Amino acid sequence: MTTPCIITVAITGSLPTKANNPAVPITVAEQVESTQAAFEAGASLVHAHVRNDDGTPTSDPDRFGRLLEGIRKHCPGMIVQFSTGGRSGAGEERGGMIPLKPDMASLATGSCNFPTRVYENSPQLVDWLADRMRTHGVKPEVEAFDLSMIFKAVEMAQDGRIAGRLHVQFVMGVKNAMPVDRDVFAFYVRTLERLAPDATWTGAGVGRHQDTLQRWALDHGGHLRTGLEDNVRLDRHTLAPSNAALVERAAALCAEYGRHPASAAEARALLSLPATA
Ligand code: ZN
Predict the structure, then answer these.
(1) Which of 20, 54, 181, 242 is most buried, by CB atoms within 10 Å?
(2) What spacing in Å lies between the alpha carbon of 116 and ligand 1's midpoint?
């Protein structure tokens, strides 16, 4: 029996606009509807940012709260992960929603360059976010934009700053950070397996490399991510009509590799999360 593949759907992000693709969900109602369709297509984990109604990124805990409530109601069992990413607020603002107790929250364990700015995660902020997550029983997903962030995550898991089984996402294809490179990817996987043998991981490719990373992840026994946050296109010529369409394509890829999309219950077991939210 092969390991089921957890499909993460990153529904909104903080950058894509309706002008990039009208299917990008912006309001909480649109986000809940888009998540439900993606859930029904095979996604078991939703990664979410929130926006103001005019589309600008925000870290407003009230919006996160309404989104959590909507997803819990319409997508029973789905794993909800909130972004603490740096585009939607400054410093500790980024963790203001953690007390809402989503299942997971993203945690970048170091700094790097992004397309037009520095993605700044000071050691103090990383520790503060990890501490909030531990206090509220929220599982981190480590966002590894380079190799040093994997080592940092392992160190934090070993000394207890990250509780429970480590889950890491390898992010490739963000301009000025780590490009999509197969040898580096394989080295990431080997390094994590060597340093933290019980860790789980996801491969995330940004932009036109989305399905390249999905294939590599499936091939190496990991989990995958899709969604309009990373890629608003189905292919060079076609806009993705929805998050669900991207999830359907990822689910079809799973079959090519003899894997099946994890159900919410399977995904919870794989990530050592409680069986119910
Ligand atoms: Zn994100």
Answers:
(1) 242
(2) 16
**Cα 59 to ligand 1 centre (Å):** 12
CATH of domain 7-270: 3.20.20.70
Alpha-carbon gap, residue 90 to 122, rounded angstroms: 12
Residue 15: exposure state from Cβ atoms within 10 A (0-12, 13-18, ≥19): middle
Q: Bridge partners of 47? A: 10, 81
Per-residue pLDDT of 191-244, as tens digits, reads 999 999 999 999 999 998 999 999 999 999 999 999 999 999 998 899 999 999
Task: Give the pLDDT band of residue 91 (cuts 50, 70, 90).
Answer: confident
The environment of the single-atom ion ligand 1, i.e. residues with CB closer than 5 A, is 83
CB atoms within 10 A of CB 157: 22
Give residue 93's pLDDT band: very low, low, confident or very high (50, 70, 90): confident
From 184, 182, 187, 188, select the one nearest 201 (Cα to Cα): 188
Q: What is the 175 CA–ligand 1 centroid distance (Å)? A: 15
